[in-house]
Specification:
Layout: E1 5-10, E2 15-19, E3 27-30, H1 31-44, E4 56-60, H2 61-64, E5 74-78, E6 93-99, E7 107-112, H3 113-131, E8 136-142, H4 143-149
GO molecular function: methyltransferase activity; nucleic acid binding
InterPro entries: 4pyrrol_Methylase_sf (IPR035996), 4pyrrole_Mease_sub2 (IPR014776), CSP_DNA-bd (IPR002059), NA-bd_OB-fold (IPR012340)
Protein name: CSD domain-containing protein
């Protein structure tokens, strides 16, 4: 999987654009939103952020569909309307998924990817039917990453 690069970043305001390595359209990203999503997911589940001993790779669902990055222990996924995590179901991964983080509608699911992915898909589809939209993100971690630090 090719690695995206920061095309432009306003570090004072915490936003910019990431250029995808395959030449697709640039992705607007708000750094604070990504940091908040990772912190919110970690705070709601039994996962200390210091268990992640390597950088967190941030990607989109479309890029994740190509496969879990070989050199990453943890991947934060945004913009995944196609449930790309379902293509990784046999991998030894844990998922920490959340929608509407920090709101009264907050929904959280965590566990072994193979065991909870069908629940997440059903919850996403029901939420889309109910609200017409969904704001979700998730953190995928190689199981040995979490187990080694527990």
């Amino acid at each position: 999987m090719a690695i995206p690069r920061v095309k432009w970043l306003n570090s004072q305001n915490g936003f910019g654009f990431i250029q995808l390595a395959d030449g697709d359209a640039d992705v607007f990203v708000h750094v604070n939103a990504i940091e908040r999503a990772v912190r919110a997911l970690a705070a709601k589940h039994p996962l200390a952020q210091n268990r992640l001993d390597a950088p967190v790779h941030v990607t989109t669902g479309r890029k994740l569909a190509e496969g879990f990055p070989d050199n990453a222990a943890s991947v934060m996924v945004l913009l995944d309307r196609d449930h790309s995590f379902t293509r990784l179901g046999e991998a030894d991964l844990d998922i920490i998924w959340g929608a509407y983080l920090g709101t009264k509608e907050e929904i959280l699911v965590a566990g072994r990817l193979a065991e909870v992915m069908s629940d997440i898909v059903a919850i996403r589809e029901e939420t889309l039917r109910k609200h017409g939209r969904i704001a979700d993100s998730y953190l995928l971690c190689r199981s040995e990453t979490l187990n080694a630090r527990a």
